[in-house]
Amino acid sequence: MSEKSGIERRHSCIETAKDAAGPVVDRAGMFRRGAFPGTGERMDFFETHATDLAMRAIEGLELDDPREITHLVVASCTGMSAPGLDLQILRRLGLDNSVERTLIGFMGCYAAISALKTARHIVRSEPDAKVLVVNCELCTLHLKETTDLERLLTFSIWGDGASAALVTSEPTGIRLDGFKALLAGDADELMTWNVRDDGFDMVLSGQVPATIQSVLGAYRGDILGNRAVEEIDLWAVHPGGAPCSMRSRRR
């Protein structure tokens, strides 16, 4: 399944054991065959490692003065606590205590879009606002021992990563013109993400690619704002596996 995913490399905050086929999967000894960690231990790991990963993404922005940040929008669905990742970022960056924080949790893959949309709404209502948007996910933290194909599919696709963006009303950089969100009919059960005793449990149905193709075909005009496909020079399609990307290209 990994070979057919079309993904050359995935990253993880979990260091693989020298003998990954042995009784212990990781170097820290958290994932022992027959005794994988519970949700509490996984959340402890998230608190320890997520902030470091998020800060690496923020450093890539090369902010002139972080103290100019007025709003912080953080999105994550792979870990949670209170005080959470948003407050940890505020502390590490040395942001003012008056910075307005918004945490977008458990929205899955499209949370980054919701975070950018939220930032856009903020700067449209407050032109002087400078909104730092951060997305951070530790997907491999929820590795499970299973033979279920749909669960194995999720483990073959997603890894760990973080991204950051600064959204302002200044006429520079990439312009956020608009957003469009559509529900795919009665497809709620095709992708699920639930908190269980042994971590978060994700199910990705093999029907997702075909459903995406169907929705894109039916609502293409709404999604593109009635523009022709040829008018758009660059596409960034969320790679939920090679089949999703290929089905999107057909539409």
Automatic annotation (TrEMBL):
Keywords from the UniProt entry: Transferase
BP-aspect Gene Ontology terms: polyketide biosynthetic process
One Pfam family it belongs to: Chal_sti_synt_N
Segments forming a coiled coil: none
InterPro entries xrefs: Chalcone/stilbene_synt_N, Polyketide_synthase_type-III, Thiolase-like
Occurrences of domain Chalcone/stilbene synthase N-terminal (ranges): 65-171
Keyword Transferase in record: yes
GO molecular function: acyltransferase activity, transferring groups other than amino-acyl groups
Domain of life: Bacteria
Gene3D superfamilies cross-referenced by the UniProt entry: 3.40.47.10
Protein's recorded name: Chalcone synthase
Organism: Limimaricola cinnabarinus LL-001
